[in-house]
C-alpha cells in the first residue's frame, strides 16, 4: 500500500504545531536521559575499586548505581521511573514486562547497538517528542530481522522492514538514528493499540471499548502537538488504518485536549451530557477585554465549564490562582467542575456530578 503521509510529515517538519521535528534534525534532549555504554561505566568502576573490570565486585558496584536497559547500555539509577509506577503500568503490558527506563532512552540504546534498525511504534513516537503512553511499551525496531517479541526488558521487539518503507534520520550528538516518520509512526501505534499489543489503564463506565479510548487519546495527542485536523489525519493514515475504524475514531477525537486525562474528561462529559455542544480550549475574557483564563472544556451557550487539575494544581500558589479564577468565573455567570485524576477513575460518580451541573433540578432527585 502506497504511503500517503509524506505531505503531512512535511507540514510537521515546517513547524505547523507547537512540537517541531524534521528529517535530518536533532532530538530534543531536554529531559532526556542519554544512555551510557556499559563498558565505559565498568572501566570507571574498576579504576575506582582498583580491581580488574571482570571482577564480580566491579559489576556489583555498577548495579548499585546504574540501571541496565539493553545488553550494552546503562542509565544512572536515579533517572529511572518510580518503582510503584513501573509495577502499575506493567499490569497492562501483554507480557507483564516491567520497564524501569524510559522509552526514548531504551530506543536510543538499541538503535546504537543495531545501526541497521529503525525505531517504530511508541519508540519512534518517544523520539519524535510524543512520549505519552510510551514508557511502558516494548522497544520496537524494524530492520533485516525475523519477527520477535521482547522476552525481557533488555530486548527489543523486532519486525522485518519493508524496502519501500520511509524513515527519518534524527541526530543525537555523533549518532544518526533512524525512525519512522510521524504519520507512519502514528499508524503503527494505532495498530498496536487496536490489536491489544500495547495498553494502558482506562476507566470503567464509558460506552467505548478500552482500545477505542486509547486510540482516541493517541490521536488527540498528535492533533494537539502537531496541530493536525481531521482531514490531515484522514489523508495521512489512508490505507494504513481501516477506513471505517479511522472515521469512527476521528469523530471521537479533538485537537484541543492538552493531555490524555483531558481526552478522557471530554469522552465522559460528551456521553453524560450529549445534548450540549462541548468545546475544548475556550478563552474567557474579563470585562476590560483581558484574558481571564482558557477553559479546558465548555458548553458556551449554557456557560458550563470543566477543568482538569493535574498534579501541579496541588501547589499552594497554583491553588490560590485556581480559587481566584473560579470566583471570577462564577461572578461572570459560569458554573463548573474541577476534575482530578481520582474523579476520572469513578466515571459513574462524575456522571452524577455532571448531571447536577447541566440539570440543577436533578439535585433533588
TrEMBL record:
This is DUF559 domain-containing protein. It comes from Corynebacterium pollutisoli.
Amino acid at each position: 500500500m502506497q504511503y500517503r503521509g509524506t505531505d503531512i510529515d512535511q507540514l510537521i517538519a515546517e513547524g505547523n504545531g507547537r512540537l517541531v521535528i524534521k528529517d535530518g534534525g536533532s532530538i530534543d534532549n531536554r529531559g532526556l536521559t542519554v544512555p551510557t555504554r556499559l563498558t565505559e561505566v565498568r572501566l570507571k568502576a574498576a579504576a575506582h575499586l582498583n580491581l580488574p573490570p571482570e571482577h564480580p565486585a566491579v559489576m556489583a558496584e555498577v548495579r548499585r548505581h546504574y540501571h541496565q536497559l539493553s545488553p550494552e547500555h546503562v542509565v544512572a539509577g536515579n533517572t529511572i521511573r518510580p518503582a510503584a509506577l513501573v509495577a502499575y503500568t506493567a499490569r497492562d503490558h501483554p507480557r507483564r514486562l516491567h520497564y524501569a527506563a524510559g522509552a526514548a532512552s531504551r530506543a536510543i540504546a538499541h538503535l546504537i547497538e543495531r545501526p541497521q534498525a529503525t525505531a517504530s511504534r511508541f519508540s519512534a513516537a518517544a523520539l519524535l517528542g510524543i512520549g505519552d503512553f510510551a514508557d511502558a511499551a516494548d522497544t520496537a525496531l524494524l530492520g533485516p530481522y525475523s519477527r520477535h517479541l521482547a522476552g525481557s526488558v533488555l530486548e527489543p521487539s523486532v519486525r522485518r522492514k519493508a524496502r519501500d518503507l520511509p524513515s527519518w534520520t534524527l541526530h543525537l550528538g555523533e549518532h544518526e538514528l533512524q525512525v519512522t516518520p510521524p504519520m507512519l509512526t502514528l499508524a503503527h501505534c494505532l495498530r498496536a493499540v487496536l490489536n491489544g499489543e500495547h495498553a494502558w489503564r482506562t476507566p470503567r463506565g464509558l460506552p467505548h471499548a478500552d482500545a477505542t479510548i486509547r486510540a482516541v487519546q493517541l490521536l488527540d495527542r498528535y492533533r494537539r502537538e502537531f496541530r493536525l485536523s481531521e482531514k490531515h489525519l484522514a489523508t495521512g493514515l489512508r490505507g494504513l488504518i481501516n477506513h471505517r475504524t479511522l472515521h469512527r475514531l476521528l469523530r471521537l477525537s479533538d485537537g484541543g485536549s492538552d493531555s490524555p486525562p483531558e481526552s478522557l474528561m471530554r469522552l465522559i462529559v460528551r456521553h453524560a451530557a450529549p445534548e450540549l455542544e462541548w468545546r475544548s480550549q475556550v478563552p474567557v475574557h474579563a470585562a476590560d477585554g483581558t484574558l481571564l483564563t482558557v477553559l479546558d472544556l465548555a458548553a458556551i451557550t449554557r456557560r458550563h465549564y470543566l477543568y482538569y487539575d493535574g498534579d501541579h494544581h496541588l501547589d499552594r500558589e497554583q491553588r490560590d490562582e485556581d480559587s481566584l479564577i473560579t470566583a471570577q468565573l462564577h461572578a461572570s455567570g459560569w458554573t463548573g467542575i474541577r476534575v482530578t485524576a481520582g474523579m476520572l477513575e469513578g466515571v459513574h460518580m462524575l456522571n452524577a456530578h455532571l448531571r447536577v451541573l447541566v440539570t440543577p433540578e436533578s439535585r433533588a432527585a
